[in-house]
Amino acid sequence: MRVKCSALLFLILGMLPFSLGAVELKYKFRTGSTYEYDYTLTESSKVTAFTVNSTRSPSKTSRKFTLRAIDFQEGAYIIDVVSSEGTYRRYIRSNGALSGAPGETGRSVPFLLTFPEGDWKVSERHQVQQVLTIGATSVPVVWNLLLKSINSEKQSAEILFTLTIKLPEDRMRRKEFNLKGRAIFDFGEGVLQQAEWISGYSFVLANREMAVARDLWQFEHQNTGVLTLGTSED
Amino acid sequence: MERINSRLPVVHAGILTALIVLLLLPMIEVSAQNARPFDITSRFKLWLLNNEARAMSSLRSDEVLIERVTSPFAFMPFGANSVPKAEEQIWAIHHKIYVLIDEIQEIYSVAKHYGSGRFGILFKQHRPEIWSIMPLQTAMPGLVSVIAVDYRKAFHEVLLKSLRLDAKRDLDLSGRLQRAAKKLSDEEYRLFDYYLSSFSALFPSDPTARIISAFLESGSKKQFAVGLKDFLQPTFTAPVFSDVTIGAAPTEPEDPLAALDKLAEMSEEPEKATSEPLEPTGEEGDQPVKPVAPTTLEPPPPGTDDLFKIWD
Questions:
Q1: Complete edge-to-edge strand list for the sheet that includes strand A98-100
Q2: ipTM of the complex
Q3: Which phi and psi angles does A141 have, rounded to 5°?
Q4: Min Cα separation B253/chain A (Å)
Q5: pLDDT 10s digits, B147-161
Q6: Which of A55, A81, A212 has the CB atom closest to B75's CB atom?
Q7: Residue A202 maps to a domain
Q8: Is CB count within 10 Å lower at the N or C end of chain B?
Q9: Number of domains in chain A
Q10: Residue-wise pLDDT tens digits, B103-145
Q11: Does the residue A42 lie in any domain?
């Protein structure tokens, strides 16, 4: 009787976070396993100069890459990212942060999206901030994440994310950049199942002399990225 | 012997041209250091080039920045597989515009330098072929009439080459201008026109863009620099030494640069307003002296030695 009560209590406690709408999202790569992803990037662009429009219709590039989970050492998964461009080693923390990339020395590490530590409640926002420096320019960047929903049956969480960045502007240059996306994370397996995001960039170069202002060119770039987990093998 | 004789004119003409070029070189270098003579396009071209450079610089620095936020996950390959962007097409149109601008500048310079016919007259007057065959006058006078024309033809050919002129291409400058403008499609031409009008709106005191527009407009419609015809396609006749007098030199065609003079008048007002004049006139004083094209070349005053009357 006592054992039955304890088991029921543990079950209720175990279910509690889902019933309350909270979950801890962590990467849990299984050592020795491989994960195969498809990554598709669709790019289109347009330039307007006076009445002349120059347009590049959407161009789609797809590539596959494989993750080889090698080990877990000092709080980071040792992963080999194998693509057509080569193999790159990454040390990835369970919240998604990168603690090292020895095969990419000299390359700027991207500003990555990371999960909050501990339980994350549905509808709760999470913010990650960083200052990116390019040459003499420093730009504050913010990832805004929102846990939209949890599917306890499929053990998946839906996350919405947007990026806020203020590109450098002056009296001749007006710029805008926005990025928004959605990710499905399998918190049971501890891997990202799917993610898609759209980014838009607009840049207007104008000339201003005294009271006269003329817009010369408007550049618009739009990118769509889709990342899908194909297979995972032990 | 015949072969050597046939090559002689070319060799002599080459030597003579090289000497002239050597003499003119210091002047060319000085003018190149300051500014191109008859420059009507540089400021507009630099404006467009600078704007392009600004745009390219911003696009690249933004791209570097954006590349760092568009790979959101630590386990994916970094760095975008970028495809050519739409701006490539605009840069390609600009390249065509630069080619047109350079062609306009070249045509304008040729017309201003040689279009009056004065330069051609100067060379005719100095009769370089006679200088070359002078030694033969006493030794083998019979040969003079035979090879003088060839000398002159060869000299003329080398001279045109050294001046970067082409008789076929430059005979009809209006046609050359039309052909250059036609390399741009209607849409590309509209864009070029928009840039010209933008430049004029932004820098109202700078006449550059207005001059380019007016030159294209008027130069494509009617012939100009007709004085070039005599210079590019002269009549080669055997010299009669007794007739060599300055008075017999060919006369300059009447009003050969009317179209360009009209153009200069058009730009006179805005030119005054600019701190940097388009064409340095070299004139001083309150009353600028309007250059008058001579109708004939004056013979030397009586009593003075005529340098070229050496065979009388």
A1: A98-100, A86-93, A76-83, A52-73, A34-49, A212-233, A191-209, A173-186, A156-165, A137-151, A125-134
A2: 0.87
A3: -130, 140
A4: 44
A5: 777 877 888 888 888
A6: A81
A7: yes
A8: N
A9: 1
A10: 999 998 888 888 777 777 777 777 666 777 777 777 777 777 7
A11: yes
Q: What is the pTM of this model?
A: 0.74
Nearest CB among B58, B75, B198 relative to A214 is that of B198
**Would A194 be classed as within a structural domain?**
yes
A97:B74 CB<8 A: yes
Query: What's the token pair of residue A165?
Result: 């960045």
For residue A202, what are the domain limits? Answer: 19-64+110-233
Q: Using pLDDT thresholds of 50, 70 and 90, give the confidence band for residue A101.
A: very high
Walking along chain B (312 residues) 10 residues at a time, the average pLDDT comes out as 54 59 48 62 94 95 89 87 87 96 91 79 72 75 77 82 82 87 94 95 92 86 73 69 47 47 52 37 36 40 41 33
The answer as to whether A215 is a domain residue is yes
Q: Which residue's structure tokens are 């849409």?
A: B187
Distance from CA of A18 to the nearest CA of B (A): 25
B51 with A143: Cβ contact below 8 A: no
> How many beta-carbon pairs below 8 A join chains A and B?
164
Chain B residue closest in CA terms to A196: B72
What is the H or E stretch that residue A47 is in? Answer: strand A34-49
Distance (Å, whole) CA B209 – CA B278: 11
Contact B74 A112 (CB under 8 A): yes
**Backbone φ, ψ for residue A97 (5° rounding):** -75, 155
Q: What does the pLDDT read at residue B32?
A: 42
Contact A83 B81 (CB under 8 A): no
CA distance B276 to chain A (A): 18
